[in-house]
Amino acid sequence: MSILQGVDQHARRYGIDELASLAGVSRRTVRFYIQEGLLPAPLGVGRGRHYDESHLDRLLEVRSLQESGRSLEDIKAGRVPGESARLIAAQREAVRRTAWRRLELAPGVELHLASDIKVPAGPRLEELVDWCRSRLSRYSDTEE
Asked: I need a surface site. Which of 40, 48, 61, 81 has the fewest CB within 10 A?
């Protein structure tokens, strides 16, 4: 029997950088919202601290309410009846945010990888970069 029985092993987890990026705020804002009780504390302990979809939803909700003119005091006190779910849905529909990793292959050329794609380590990554650079150099040599 697993200790983690009942825990969704495939639930999306975010570090503070990724959470802030997806919500369009700074890490400092995330920490401030936690301190002020607008956002729940991260899950886990120590280096395993992380955030999940509920944190992202709440962060988007606070941001949307604030952009619609609500004060942080009103949001914290829950004085925004019925608007929260509608604002979250509208914001998620408007722009689907995703986190990406960027690898510079050559000056002016980048490879973008979705955050859920594992980046090859060490020699495999170097092999990929070298392969891309060699293919790109063929095109730049013929154009000049």
From this structure: 81
Question: Is 87 within 8 Å of 61 (Cβ atoms)?
Answer: yes
The pair of structure tokens assigned to 14 is 């975010």
Q: Is residue 55 a contact partner of residue 49, using CB atoms and an 8 Å limit?
A: no
Average pLDDT, the chain: 77
Q: Whole-prediction pTM value?
A: 0.53
User: From 3.20.20.140, 3.40.50.1100, 1.10.150.530, 1.10.1660.10, which CATH number describes the 16-94 domain?
Assistant: 1.10.1660.10
Q: Could you give the CA distance from residue 124 to residue 130 in angstroms, rounded to a whole number?
A: 10
- Sign of the CA dihedral running 27, 31, 36, 41: positive
Residue 43 pairs with which residues in a beta bridge?
50
Query: Is the pLDDT reported for residue 5 higher than 50?
Result: no
